[in-house]
Structures are given as structure tokens and as C-alpha cells.
Amino acid sequence: MAAPLLENLSESLGSPEPAVRLILSILIGYPCALVYRRFFFHQPATVIHLFHTFSGLALAAFNFGSQLYHSAVCILVQFLMLRLMGRTVTTVLSSFTFQMLYLLAGYYYTATEEYDIKWTMPHCVLMLKLVGLSFDYYDGGKEPSQLSSEQKTAALPSVPSLLEVCGFSYFYGGFLVGPQFTLRSYQRLVAGELTDCPGKPPNSVVPAMKRFALGFVCLVIYTIFSPYYPDSYYLTDEYEAQPFWYRCVFILLWAKVILYKYVSCWVIAEGVCILSGLGYNGVVDGKHQWDACANMKVWLFETTPLFGGTIASFNINTNAWAARHVFKRLKFVGNKTLSHVATLFFLTIWHGLHSGYILCFSMEFFIITVERKALALVRDSPLLTKLANSALYPLIYVVQQFIHWLFMGYPLVPFCLFTYDKWLKVYSSVYFCGHVFFLVAFLIMPYLRKALVPKEERSQKKEE
């Protein structure tokens, strides 16, 4: 009975059935959180773990059927590693190697040339959780003086039980699309500590509904406009026949619309976490904060004219995970650029094995490098600083936003089209304008700096 209903719903919405199942599963998180608040908040930890485990397993079965065994296998192996290998570097390396290879094998055997919703989608989220768990368990055996403040917050004083790891892994608010959170945060949720009313469920209904409403608006925007900006249009003769300016503007608008797919899912899922209490983040300036699980800064995402600003506003928890467990733990390398490259390489293969991911993240590195040099130039040049703060700023802002979204869309093309024959066709049609723009900007930056920055300022920067 359910299958025909889902088929009819997907046809009426014009969306694939797996996508409909996914969004319904994220929405089901809200009644699950209400049930938890009403019936399980004061229950023993074992009961709460069971509720979270079976509710998450039900969502996994609804979306992926028997394929849910992949997550169960990896959770069991991770638990055995913690139990049998202890707080050692070997545990961390073994965990990272096994979980990453399992995910990559999943990509290899299930990958197609289209974006498919299959078991590997939530599994990439789970992989970060389980590897992060091994890091946090390892940190729990160190002296507090050896840990950073965020490591102290996440460090585990003892090995968790299998049921605890299952509840943490299958928690309905983060199993399918994230966000990332630590086992310590989950333990605090189960202990009833993540609330603004000690001993009672949190007053989080209104904050949760605000995020739901915002996510729903983003979902409506995507549903309405995505049919007008399909990925497949790039590969048509009609797109190639359009004027150059039209092709560029299409990339800009397509990028803006396509990202709402991710924004809507993350913001709605964040609302589930807030409703359950997991999103509670203490008190700041006398106000209770509910952004512990925020994966999007929507206002920054919509208003920033900077590439760095968009990256800082998008998929926050995954970026924070990569910074905490990859970038910062490569401190021994002694080179921030190499650490940055290694982190982007990790994120590349974590997303998948297609060439488009490699190109996307390599371009991200290059674009951010050029932008940082440009911002330093504006900061150090009296003329450019004055211009940036003049009455012309509104016009400058509009131009910035156009360049920003055009070249945000540019690296997204290979990210969404996957294979080189497809993204190469699109880049050829726009004459590799993004590559040319940033290469020229990179090459002329030293000359602009020499012409626009006072000599004494340049000398001071060299000394620093």
C-alpha cells in the first residue's frame, strides 16, 4: 500500500521516489523527537538508546531496505576496535582505514553517472561519526594539558557500550544527512543535560519550528525552480547554442538553486536536533542558544560576497569535523598549506571517486588562495580601502555578488556532473573562463600589490 502512495506522491511532486522517501524520513524526525520528549526524556539511558536505535533503523529500512546491514557491520566493527584495541594510535589508524575503505568500496560498487540516493549517502555521514569516535576515545586517555579546549569537550573518559554506540549512530536527527555531533554531546542528551530547564524537556519547540519553517521555504524554492535549471541542460545542443553571457548567467542561477537542495535538508534536520535538545548550546548574553547542530548559516550564505564566507556558512559541521580531525592533527607537518591540501584531498575522496570531485576541491583551494591575496591587497592599499568604504560600495557589492556566484557555480559544475566528459563539455562551452579569470588574477596580484601598496607597507609585511 505504501509503495503506490509514494509513487503517486513522487509523480505529483516531479521528484524521484528515493528523494521523496528521504525528505519524508527527515520530517519524521519531528514526531520522533516529540515522542522522545513526551515518553522517554525521564527514562533510563538503556531505554533511550533502544528508542534512538530502533527509530533510526526503521528510517534506514524505509529508505534502503536490507542495505542497512552496511551501517550495522561498520558500527559493530568500530565497537570491537574500541573494546579490543584500546586507546592507541593503532585504533585510530585502523578505524580510519577500515571505515574509509568500506565507504570507498561502496562508492566503487554502487556509483553511476547520476546522483543517486542509496545507502552510501548516510554512510558517509556515519563514517565521520565512527572515525571521530575513535579520535575522541583516544583523546580521553591523554592528560588534559595535552588537549585543546574542543578536544577536552569531546574526549571520552571510558569506552562506550555497543547499545550506546548504536543509539549515537542511528539517532534520527542526524543519521541520514547529518549534522555531525560527538558521542559526548549524545551522552549529555541522554542524561537530560541539554536543556534550558534542568530536569525537564527543553523549551525548544519555537526555535525548532523556526528552523523547520526556514528549511521548508528553501525546499519550496528548490522544488519550484529546479525544473528550470536541471543539470542535464548543460549537455544539450540548446545550451551550447546560447550566447556566452547566457551560458554564464545560467551557471550562476543554477548554482544558487541547486544548493537549496542541501540547505533545505540540513536546516530541517537541524530543527529535529533542536526539538530533541541536541541543538542546545548554553547561554550567551543571557539568551539560550540552540545552534550546537547548525549546519548552515543561512543569512551569511545569502548575503556574503566572498567565497570564504560561503564556505564558512555551508556544511558547517562537516567542515568543523575535517578541521578538528584532519587539519589540526596535521600540525606536526609544520606547514598550513600542506595541511589544507591534505584536508581538501580527504574531503574529495570522502565525497566519492568521480573526477569531478577532484576538480571541484582543487579549484576551491585555488579560488580561496586568490581571494585571500585580493583581500590582503584591498586591506593594505589606501586607495582600494578608500574605494571599498566609499559611496560606490553598493555597486561594488553587486559586482562582487555576480562574480562570487558565477564562480561558485563554476566549480560546482564538475561536482554535480561527476565525469570528465560532461564537465569538460561545459567548461569548453564557456571557454574555461573561470580557470582563465583566477589564473590571470593570481599572476597579476604581485604587480598590483607593487603598484597599489606603499613601499613601507610591503617591507613591513616581508619582515612579518
UniProtKB/TrEMBL annotation:
EC number: 2.3.1.23, 2.3.1.n6
Annotated Pfam families: MBOAT
Subcellular location: Endoplasmic reticulum membrane
GO molecular function: 1-acylglycerophosphocholine O-acyltransferase activity; lysophospholipid acyltransferase activity
Signal peptide range: none
Membership in a protein family: Belongs to the membrane-bound acyltransferase family.
Name of the protein in its database record: Lysophospholipid acyltransferase 5
Organism: Seriola lalandi dorsalis
